[in-house]
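Run log, item B.
One chain of 289 residues. Sequence copied directly from the ordering sheet:
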Amino acid sequence: MTLFVFGLGFSARRFAEAARDRFPQICATVTDADKARALEAETGLSMRAFGPEADDPRIPADLAAADALLVSVPPDRDGDPVLRRFRDDIARSRIGWIGYLSTIGVYGDHDGAWIDEATPATPKSARSQGRLAVENAWLALGAETGKAVQVFRLSGIYGPSRNPIVKLRDGRSQRIVKAGQVFNRIHIDDIAATLLASLDRPRNGAVYNVTDDEPAAPQTVTEYAARLTGLPLPPEVDFETADLSPMARSFYGENKRVRNRLIREELGVELAYPTYREGLQALKEEAAG
């Protein structure tokens, strides 16, 4: 069994590590050849370059030999670079399971209300509108070829090296307060577990929300991380005057509580970290160990 991964980023790498027992051969891409060589030596995976400037010529043969495909490459101005360059190779291949990592941003703003996969996607930003278009393009490929294409809409991702504790330790944390604002989160280990569960229960056309059980205000999570670690708590900053990049500020323009019932009921997923509290506690223990 062979797995091919387009875009070996934070979440996809965790999945590839978790899937080693299932897939003796794993190929994955990063954006340039130098990084590919370094990661191949570090991870033992078969790494390929896939980026704006050049594609590794071995990728078509890799796809022809693959049994499963994970796509973790964001859209560009022209849509999905994977479909644009390799759609025909994928359609002709023996690949039976395709996972596309998307975002809950495609739902847009719901004023803090609870939503699920049956909620219409009404993205506000051009970035999320592009994501939804790419989701639909992958689902269309599944409808055309009969390959099981699943879309996984991820919430805010955290894990080792990327979490509120690290931000506090590095002095990069802000305790931004916006009345009524909540965000949804998911630990990368629970993303990997969901993808592994889907491999056992493929369903062409499926869309899953991958998020934990408890949306929470960002300042609440920061305060918990500070209590947990004894690190200094940064002062409260009103959202209107906070020093935020345009992209970070845009996230505060969307407020929703996302349900994860489908991954539990259909895929049998039991979250290792059902809330930020369990996740941060485990990350503190890992760092201490």
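Observations after the first pass:
- The chain has a mean pLDDT of 96.
- The two ends are 34 Å apart (CA to CA).
Flagged for discussion on Thursday.
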